[in-house]
Design a protein that fits this description.
It is built from 21 helices and no strands. It is an all-alpha fold.
Length: 428
């Protein structure tokens, strides 16, 4: 029979003068549990520090060195703690803490307490308007459009990162269940975007923390299986996380604009602010994302992250191909394209988003015929959208209907997702 080691807790401390001391002790103790998911040396396989210094200056070079060599200290400490006290003991504590909050745990392990305290402390920019109103414009586009921007746009560019591709390859998840990964990523994103869903304990909040914990477990797994941090930096490091945030914002938003589903500057401003909080819950350092309120600012930071990302690998091309294969059938319904042209049409869309140079690196072939066929469809979408905007009542009704449909779909029972299982360190 085993028992969980005694850990520090503030649960029995009633003296208000002693509580801050106890909380500080918990945070310091949690820091001691952080595994080797931080380094200091500039990774040899990345663009050199001198190159970043010449283009962006010393402050940004220092930030990139820290970001390349840092994972997610709070979540990484929880993973180390889970293995230390035993997974059977730690898993239910993690699940309850994420779903019900730190207050629901009696005598919580220190690393878990530190993570939950951080995530439950709202940044100053979070208010009711952000949580309830700012994500609404995202639902002015139908779900198939989001799936296309997620696949042909965001995920393809995420997979351009050789370090992310190496993590998936090292952990045996390169092209395994690529279609399921796409579906589940879409499920998480919808949960996170539904108005009110990022409040503590709500489905979007829970799902986002599960994704964060999945990253932490994958980070440990990659290191255990020989991932070369000296060459590539810490697996799923802050550059990888920040760059992925960019792909789910500027890459995805611009992709949807190219499909004919434009957003106003005010709508984009609100959505970027909302995604700051998503980034906070995912463990992304505020210096990498907060303050960005439009495409121009996002691209400036993205250029910095791209400088230290590295060239596309063969693994990246394989991931892109698997992702596009899994979603090509969607085009048949959305754009009314014959089956034989669905994949060429998706290739044409992807090339529009990423440009000819990157598309060539990812081995995405030109599709001139399909590209020509897309133009009238995009024009039609843009005109129909403009017509809906001219009627505020119709515009609001469209958004309300989409949100209602997504809430119903989210409430349907289904199998646990990979991030739900992976958040607790599931072996599969």
């Amino acid at each position: 029979m085993t028992t969980r080691p005694r850990t520090a807790s503030t649960g029995a401390i009633h003296n208000p003068r002693l509580r801050p001391i106890a909380e500080s002790f918990i945070e310091e103790l949690a820091a001691l549990l952080v595994p080797q998911t931080t380094t200091t040396a500039w990774p040899s396989g990345r663009s050199s520090r001198s190159a970043v210094l010449a283009q962006f200056g010393e402050t940004r070079a220092d930030l990139m060195q820290w970001a390349l060599t840092t994972g997610d200290p709070l979540a990484d400490a929880v993973v180390a703690e889970m293995h230390e006290i035993g997974m059977s003991t730690a898993r239910p504590l993690l699940v309850r803490g994420i779903e019900d909050g730190l207050d629901a745990l009696h005598d919580p392990p220190p690393a878990l307490a530190a993570l939950l305290k951080d995530t439950e402390t709202l940044p100053g920019y979070v208010d009711d308007e952000l949580l309830d109103a700012l994500p609404r414009p995202w639902f002015s586009s139908p779900t198939p459009v989001h799936i296309l921007s997620l696949s042909a746009g965001a995920l393809v560019r995420v997979y351009e990162s050789p370090s992310i591709a190496k993590v998936l390859s090292t952990t045996g998840r390169l092209v395994d269940r690529a279609d399921k990964r796409l579906t589940e990523t879409g499920t998480w994103l919808t949960h996170a975007m539904l108005p009110g869903n990022l409040r503590r304990g709500r489905p979007g909040y829970v799902a986002t923390l599960n994704v964060r914990m999945l990253h932490a477990h994958m980070r440990k797994l990659a290191l255990d299986r020989g991932y070369d941090s000296a060459a590539d930096g810490v697996p799923i490091n802050q550059v990888d996380l920040g760059r992925t945030w960019m792909d789910f914002t500027v890459t995805s938003f611009v992709a949807e604009e190219q499909f004919g589903f434009d957003l106003t500057g005010r709508e984009l401003h609100g959505l970027y602010r909302y995604r700051w909080y998503v980034g906070h819950l995912l463990g992304i350092d505020a210096r990498l994302v907060e303050g960005i309120t439009g495409h121009a600012a996002a691209r400036r930071v993205d250029d910095l992250l791209q400088t230290v990302t590295g060239p596309v690998s063969e693994d990246s091309a394989r991931l892109a191909a698997a992702t596009l294969d899994s979603v090509s059938a969607l085009l048949r319904g959305l754009f009314q394209i014959p089956p034989r042209l669905s994949r060429p049409a998706l290739d044409a869309l992807t090339r529009r988003i990423h440009g000819p140079g990157m598309s060539q690196d990812l081995q995405i072939r030109p599709a001139p015929v399909a590209d020509v066929l897309l133009t009238p469809a995009v024009t039609g979408f843009r005109q129909a959208r403009a017509a809906r905007r001219r009627s505020p009542r119709r515009w609001g009704s469209t958004i309300d209907s989409t949100i209602a449909a997504e809430r119903r779909r989210a409430a349907e029972p289904g199998e646990p997702t990979a991030y739900q299982r992976g958040a607790t360190g599931s072996a599969d």
